[in-house]
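Hi P.,

Sorry for the delay on this. The queue was packed all week, but I finally got your sequence through. Input first:
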Amino acid sequence: MAGEIINLNKARKDRARAEAKATAAANRAAFGRTKGQKDAARIEAERLKRDLDGARREDD
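Then the structure:
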């Protein structure tokens, strides 16, 4: 067997580093917005909900 020798500590740390980087990216997307951007997103969500409710059929 001529497999590649790997350092398990290095592999574990690399995997943890990649997971931390992914978590940081998700947090930046969720929390890294200005108040104006958050308000605009909230207003847009309310408008979409209102439009959807307005298009609802009345079943008898």
